[in-house]
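Schema walk-through. Below, the input block comes first and the output block second. Nothing else is stored per chain. Lengths vary across the set, and this one has 442 residues.
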Amino acid sequence: MENSTGGKRPKVVIIGGGFGGLWAARTLANKPVDVVVIDRNNYHTFLALLYQVAAAELTAEDIAYPVRSVFCKIPNIDFILAHARRIDLQNRRIETDGETISYDYLILANGSVTSTFGVPGVGKHAYFLKTLEEAVALKNHIICCFESAAGEPDAERRKSLLTFVIVGGGATGVEYAGALTELIHGPLIKDYPGIDFSEARIILLEAAEQLVSSMPSNIRDYTARQLRGMGVDVRLKAAVAEVFPDRVGLKGAENIETNTVVWTAGVKGEGLAAASNIPVTRDGRVAVIETLQIQDQQNIYVIGDLASINEGQRILPMVAQVAIQSGVTSAQNILRQIARLAPQPFIYKDRGSMITIGRKAAGVAIGSRTFTGFFAWVMWLVIHLFNLIGFRNRVMVLINWAWDYLLYERAVRYVFPSGTPSEAQCSSCVRKPEKKNDYPGK
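--- output ---
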């Protein structure tokens, strides 16, 4: 393969600062290439613990790490804060909301976004759990619901404020249901003595016949039993028809009156590929060949959540291990191409899967072996702590976990940022009237 740079060092652009993008860049560190990492955020988010931010267990800073700090001592890697809008495939340029960036090789690692599956009202009325901003907004909303319920005289309105519906029985939905239950029936009971907590309900809706369908059957059964034992109302084969501001409409069932719908039902590939006329599957992912390249664009690799990687009888799941391993392989293949060697096929090594349901309760599957209960929970803690980027993050997460475990306390039970200036006449938890004539005297 001829070098298109005319003797200059090849330029590798990586779009996305998640696990796949970071590990691809690390693999190219101090190699004879110039690397540019592009991301719309200047930090990496440890998405596996995002639900704990939304459950007031961790702060956003605990699971975020500056991208520039990762690469500050690597001279051949640069970072650009920008939102990639479109790829000009013919001219090998990336159009961003700022400058236009050229490339010789491109790694698409921009991940996934929430999928609403076209269900009416989800985009407008539901809370998502895919970014730090969404996790903080959801945590603020949960606290505000209890602040409002504490002074709400109307029984029906109070019941709606204290009903929390989580849609999606995958790992995120299950883990958030467990964490939210422990928040409500632990620290918040002490914070709001005037509320009757028997009115507080957490409802987990799953359209399929089982929770966490990707896990072995004994872990699926254990998860359902554990959640129900914690007081979560688990409803299987419950499909959402529409989401309204004050209720959820179910197919073939009665509506659920609620002010809180948390949508964790699914994700799809981020839209850059489709916007660039790169063929995508129904879920927005890019079908790649065995070397992780696009069929007609041999200088473009797609990894992580955005890649539809066919492994025999299945498409590899959107998990961190797939992103990390595909990121390393894509970078190695680019180095092989530069050396005029053939790219190698991607071989995924499944290191197992795990899920936590709450205090001392988790499920772990490694090969044919499965573990549940306290031992699995300890394994979950250790592995997630180890995979956090940054020593400070590990220390802060460990302190918060220990504080919660020993004292049944959540350290982040505040509404911040409030979104309301300090001199404003009302707080962010006050429900604002929808019409002018709702104000007194209007």
